[in-house]
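Changelog note: in this version the structure field was regenerated for every chain. One regenerated record is shown below for reference.
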Amino acid sequence: MPSSPCSPVCPVLSRAAWARVLPFLTYIGFIVLADLLQRAGWDAAQLRWLYPLKIGLVLGLLVLFWRDYDELRAGLPSARALVAALLLGVLVWWLWIRLDAGWMVVGQSDGYDPRQDGMIAWPLAIVRLAGAALVVPVMEELFWRSFLMRWLTAEQFQTVAPAHVGVRGFVITMLLFGVEHNLWLAGIVAGAVYGLIYMRSGNLWAAIGAHAVTNGVLGVWIISTNSWSYW
């Protein structure tokens, strides 16, 4: 009797999948840890120092698995696609700070306040801004768009061209991306925009670029307006 192609000891996910999942799980794990520490009595000022550690570990995992990210070595999208993606990134920021009515928000967020004694602690602010604009977009787009959206279409996700992602993969990823954020409606809109950019351009750098612009402009706006709850 011929053996099955996968024995009981086969991993649930391939190395390529884990390379995209582990950085994201690490990031989420720190969010859970911060919540537990807050419940244990830690205040927001103490918890701020978790962010540099979180973003450092996520960056380390991205570097460790860099050779597994074939889509990031495929080159940049066309100039037209890149410009469109960057403009859409600004549009998502504009919508993000407006889709904040009570029914559009779930839970409460203290945000990230880098001030000490009423003054901005610039090392904290810069690390927070750099993490949000440079590290998080790569980590999240690798997980949400490159992996999950395609994996929901076919288990061998690397064989799925972005343009061939199914409706199920697009919709589920969009909704989950939304509920990951306390501004859930803004998150759904952002997830839809980044997903469509990826599918239309066929290039993950386009989605990363849009996401980076959104987070970067949002971070500059937060610092300039002291709107810390949006972090």
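Spot check on this record: The helical segments are 15-39, 44-47, 50-64, 79-96, 122-151, 167-179, 184-201, 204-225. The chain has one domain: 15-230.
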